[in-house]
Predict the 3D structure of the following.
Amino acid sequence: MLCAQMAIEAKDSVAISSESEERFEVDWGSEDSTRVNAITSEVELFGNAFVAMDDIRLEAYRIVYSSQKNQACAYGTRDSLGDWIGRPVMTQGGQTFEQDELCFDLKSRRGLSRKAVTVQGESVFHAEVAKRQSDQRIHVANAKFTTCNADNPHFHFHLKRAIMIPGEKVVSGPFYLKFRKIPTPLALPFGWFPTPPDKRSHGLLMPGYGNGGALGFFLKDLGYYMPIGEYADIRLTGDLYSGGS
């Protein structure tokens, strides 16, 4: 296993030009092979590759790390059966995010992910595109919010655009419920999903999912929660069946 540690400037240079410049250390390594390009200051890592800095860690089959740009781009690969190997995983502040590919700026702490997935309590959040900000807020497009842990969820709330604050909440514009790829009439102009749901924060309560036989597939305990004081709250829930009952 090849590992290394590099001291990177907060500016686009390796040499320290001022005592006031911020420094940070980046660790990187891989198990298979490493290619170093001295001209572009890039390191390409293969096989259980990682790049780590402070509380941030990226892991993937392949990572391209540029000390000049302070950027790491992570990619997975597929085996002969089409299954993922080394799909990029990012961990920050105790939160874990998995995605098909990721480019992350280590200086600004901003990044762009494609097909990202994260678990928040009992909820699973999928995003076609996710843009991470320096304050850890995540702006997403074409997202799925569900409690179904299948790779292709049996049901989900489809959110065209949303903002996610990991460990706190997801706030969205218009959204609607879908079974697989089939949309339903259940839609709302905006959404507020607390994550994790055990906190006393108002918002939609994510339902359970199952098969009700003759009644069809169902969502159980779908509802809304609202705290109205230190010792009181309101919880409205109901069940929804695809058979119409």
User: Anything to note?
Assistant: Confidence is low (pLDDT under 50) at residues 5-20. The two ends are 59 Å apart (CA to CA). The chain has two domains: 26-197, 199-244. Residues 30 and 49 are 4 Å apart (CA to CA).
